[in-house]
Amino acid sequence: MQEIQVENRVWIQKNGKPFLGSGRISLLEEINKYGSISKAATHLKMSYKRAWELVESMNSVAETPLVIKETGGKNGGGSNLTEKGKLIINQFRKLEEKSRIYLADEIKKCCIS
Amino acid sequence: MQEIQVENRVWIQKNGKPFLGSGRISLLEEINKYGSISKAATHLKMSYKRAWELVESMNSVAETPLVIKETGGKNGGGSNLTEKGKLIINQFRKLEEKSRIYLADEIKKCCIS
């Protein structure tokens, strides 16, 4: 049996500037998990500088920040997601999933073989 | 006014092998236009070797060939698309377009901002 698989990548721009994509969302997910940009970067095999730049870019483009730096406290601070940041992960992953389902349905109909 | 744009890339695998993507379809479109893999490659700033490999890959994965080599004739041969090749360009571009429209609609609904 011949099996057709369709793949797709989604990314979002805002006012012509890069805003969200699968890689940026993965970074938000890791920051949410570890409470630290540095640990998230290590986990994604990304430099801290690069991770920091991506966070800055998302924060500056979003209506309200997605990541905030928490200073002080017993762990000496760290970074965490705002409610908006958590919401956007959810919205983006759902959009990807819906798009995947849509394309899988379409490819069955359109008979590419 | 804040403007959200969604972009996406679609590609298709068959039995786990790369089959079609926007770049491969552009190559088919150029071959259709120029009747020559070599001219299509030049136009796409791609080496002839690379273009030839992509055509071979698509031909071997498709049910029937998408590109055929025409030998002889007053122009000393060239390459042309089969009916199947022309059909697949159309199907793929439609799939991309539908997916674009779907995502543009979804992004309006899902309120990423």
Detailed description of the structure:
Two copies of one chain form a homodimer. The first copy, chain A, has helices at residues 22-34, 37-43, 48-61, 83-110; strands at residues 4-14, 17-21, 67-70, 78-81. The longest helix of chain A has 28 residues, at 83-110. Helices cover 55% and strands 21% of the residues of chain A. In chain A, helix 1 packs across helix 2, helix 1 (22-34) packs antiparallel against helix 4 and helix 2 (37-43) packs across helix 3 (48-61). The interface between A and B is medium-sized, with 34 and 34 residues. Strand 1 of chain A pairs antiparallel with strand 1 of chain B, so a sheet runs across the interface.
List the helices and strands and how they pair.
Two copies of one chain form a homodimer.
Chain A: E1 4-14, E2 17-21, H1 22-34, H2 37-43, H3 48-61, E3 67-70, E4 78-81, H4 83-110
Antiparallel strand pairs in A: 1-2, 3-4
